[in-house]
Amino acid sequence: MKKAFLTVTVISAVFTLVACAKKDSEYAAKMRQKNAGAQVGQTATNHKDGVPKNEKKIATNLCEKPKETVCAVQEAPIAETIRKEGREKALTQLKKEFPQLSAEFKGTSEEFQAGKLYKEELRFLHLSDAAYRMIYNYDKDIQETKALVQKLYAEHIQASTLSDEEKKRQISVINSTDVMSISQIIETTYPGKNAMTILATSNCEGDGLGLRAHSSLLPGASAGVILICPGQFLKLAGKDKDDRITSLVMLLAHEMYHQLQFQARVDVQDAEASKCLRNSMPEHDNKYFETREREAMADMTAGRILMAHLKAVTDLKTKQDRISLAMNWLCHIPDAHEGDSATHFTNEERIKNLLKIKEAAVLTCGEGPRC
Ligand SMILES: [Zn+2]
Questions:
Q1: Cα(106) to centroid of ligand 1, in Å?
Q2: 45 with 330: CB under 8 angstroms?
Q3: How far is CA 79 from CA 135, 147, 288, 322, in A?
Q4: Which residues partner with 216 through β-bridges?
């Protein structure tokens, strides 16, 4: 690698499609007629404890209203309780350890930055993460999802037309990539630790409730590393294990793909899919697309991995619900409005683009494109 230090924010990419919106609507209307009543009034997920009692029911369909459907997924009430109680507990402890912090100190990023309190902010992140994990130990989910995504990637790569040597190389990149927890980042010794701790506080903030993720090659390290902020995991607290794992598959697969971009130059091999996606977004010029292509490709492959994960789900409505769940993280990361980000499409574009991959044809959302 020429670059000793690479990092890409997870706020990844997807694209828009105006041309097939009409067809999608026609399909959705037919589906609604066909299933008269059955779907009306349901939220995108059937998860009973994820829907607050006073939640206004939204009738949506993934084909017709991708963003609304994906973003209608609710978290369980316990998630907010863990965030609030964990943060309070950590802040109390932080003030004990650093008595110079005033009673009014709230632990916001602005406060840490204004006071140049780097050591305190890192300690707050450490304490917050530990407090959250006392109630929901997401480390197990991370490791399980990592093993699953590595397995799915290995199958995906094996099924490709790459040479045996290249297949071996890519699988090795995926299998050597680690997902580091906050405690691992802070407590252990490894090459590039300084850079990693800065990434952790800048992305996850002192209380760990930031919602970003990062894929990096740290200075001096021989393998890739992925950081997912505790805030992303806490959204899943109180859900079934299957739902929690499914919620993390696409996010992690997206970050893993960045490692292939860093270490195996995979984009060159995706020229056809890239062109197809580009053609499906006539509203954007080439320049707009080019700077976002890396993220778009990461999303596209992550979508293929997700569809492989959900292969056994045959019921269409269930499949749409599972996909909505898996894409919900795209509703909670900072949005890249046009002109605002040179590397990512908007979250809505990213959600819509998943429906364009050829593996999503089973959802029968209109007639294409199939990239
Ligand atoms: Zn990304």
A1: 31
A2: no
A3: 10, 25, 37, 20
A4: 7, 225
pLDDT tens for each residue of the chain, 371 residues long? 333 343 444 333 222 222 233 333 333 343 333 333 333 333 333 333 444 444 444 446 899 999 999 999 999 999 999 999 999 999 999 999 999 999 999 999 999 999 999 999 999 999 999 999 999 999 999 999 999 999 999 999 999 999 999 999 999 999 999 999 999 999 999 999 999 999 999 999 999 999 999 999 999 999 999 999 999 999 999 999 999 999 999 999 999 999 999 999 776 667 889 999 999 999 999 888 888 999 999 999 999 999 999 999 999 999 999 999 999 999 988 776 555 577 888 999 999 999 999 999 988 887 778 99
Backbone angles phi, psi at 222, to 5 degrees: -95, -15
Distances (CA, A) of 240 to 75, 76, 111, 257, 325: 11, 10, 37, 27, 12
Ion ligand 1: residues, CB < 5 A: 8, 10, 12, 295, 298
CA distance 213 to 200: 9
Burial of 302 by CB count in 10 Å (0-12 exposed, 13-18 middle, 19+ buried)?
buried
Give distance in angstroms: CA of 32 to centre of ligand 1.
35
DSSP 3-state assignment of 154? helix
Spatial contact of 195 and 5, defined as CB atoms under 8 Å apart: yes
Query: The whole model's pTM is what?
Result: 0.82
Label residue 14 left, alpha or beta by phi (over 0 means left) and psi (-120 to 50 means alpha): beta
Distance 344 CA to ligand 1 centre (A): 8
* CA-closest candidate to residue 124, choices 81, 181, 186: 186
- Amino acid identity, residue 88? E
How far does residue 260's CA lie from ligand 1's centre (Å)? 12
Cα–ligand 1 centroid distance for 248 (angstroms): 14
C-alpha 300/C-alpha 371 separation (Å) is 9
Q: State the distance from the centre of ligand 1 to the C-alpha of 179, rounded, in angstroms.
A: 15
- How many angstroms separate the alpha carbon of residue 55 from the centre of ligand 1? 32
Place of tokens 């589906």: 31
Ligand 1 center from residue 353 Cα (angstroms): 14
